Amino acid sequence: MKADAGRKYRAYPTGDQGQVLTGWGHTARALWNVALEQRVYLWEQRRYSLRSGEQCKQLTAARTELDWIGDLPAQTGQQILRSLDHAYDNFWNPEHPARFPARKKRGHRLSIPFPGQAVEVRKLNRHWAEVRLPKLGWLRFRLSRAIGGTIRNATLSRDGNGWHISFGVHTGRKPDAPNGYATCGVDFGVAASAFVSTETTPRLMPPSLTTKEKKRLKALEQRKARQITYAKKHGGGKYGRRLRTTIAQIASLTTRRGNRRRDFTHKLTTDLAKSHGLIGIEDLRVKNMTKSAKGTTKVPGKNVRAKAGLNRSILDNTPGERRRQLEYKARMYGSVLVAVPPFHTSQTCAACGQVDPESRKGCGRLFACTRCGHEDDADHNASVEIEARTRRTGGSEINSTRSIPRVRVPATSRRRMREAPKPAHAS
Ligand SMILES: [Zn+2]
């Protein structure tokens, strides 16, 4: 019985609980870093791969000797070591884009994992519930939606706007039967967030910060820069209380911005999956698209600033995340997602099929075919072309997107992979 859905709620720890949780969060981070360092060291010195089984035993010993580790609930420590196994497995899996497990820095989002059997949830009323965590007691959270399943794991996390509790839930929901709706092609653009071929206007992401919030963010960034300069000059570079407050205020705003973007993306992908039977998107590699334009010192890149701006807008529109969401939502709502070859979709005429960069003069919004004279919004034209390519596949490449197998790699092949030359994505 695996978790097949996630639920995240805002948690409201009391003052004391908040302090304990912050302490645990940093311990959890330190434990991850120490465990990672130990694995790296053992591999470098003795070509030995340490796994969570052995490290869990060492953890038990360390808990009696070191107070700071002893304070952390035992299950949390074990959960962290197991997720480190997972991070290594993903890195060794050539199909998986994961890089080598990274150290968790101070100022990183704090997170404290628990296995499902260590927690208990009870409902207080329509809007509130509480969860019992080992060594902490009952913690209240806002029940903004029903949990609707068996809890398999729980994670407490802290971001710029406070604490949240998320549950991995087994709902046992069966995917819908094919919904039989229309086919569409979607062009994820930079100017237009998404243009659906069956629609006449683009779906634009609303501004994620209000004008007032943007102004405030800018002022805070300037204050931060000033305070850092001051700290370097007078305090030996030590961050003072005021600087920390500024950093927290910036984090609060950027977290809000991120939440609004995520909200838009989720609504867009849910709507697409629910109202279409076959969805075509371009098979783009986000990493290549957003690669730095800087180039090298020998061969400096062109338009570095412009590319940086473009990168920001591509990442803001998160095509990779949209694709990930479409993959599982299409499966859930009886739709099929197809990734079609992206070559020249913006230069191809959707009416006659002529490929000519001249059809998009000056990179404007208008597409005017040089052969048949077909005129359309450039992004809409691209989405119609994507729809046509989608129809040609006939939905045969069902969810042909990189679905990454979440398997544990056997020890022997792990060793082979590691000794093989590094794959390109790991560098
Ligand atoms: Zn044409």
Polypeptide structure, described:
By secondary structure, the protein is of the alpha+beta class. The chain folds into two domains: 188 residues, no CATH class; 211 residues, no CATH class. Helix content is 43%, strand content 17%. The protein is built from eleven helices and 13 strands. Strands 2-6-7-1-5-4-3 form a seven-stranded antiparallel β-sheet. The longest helix has 35 residues. The radius of gyration is 25 Å and the shape is globular. It starts with a strand and ends in an 8-residue tail after the last helix. The chain binds zinc ion. The site of zinc ion (ZN) has 8 residues, from loops.
Provide tags for this entry:
427 residues, alpha+beta, seven-stranded antiparallel beta sheet, four-stranded mixed beta sheet, 11 helices, binds zinc ion
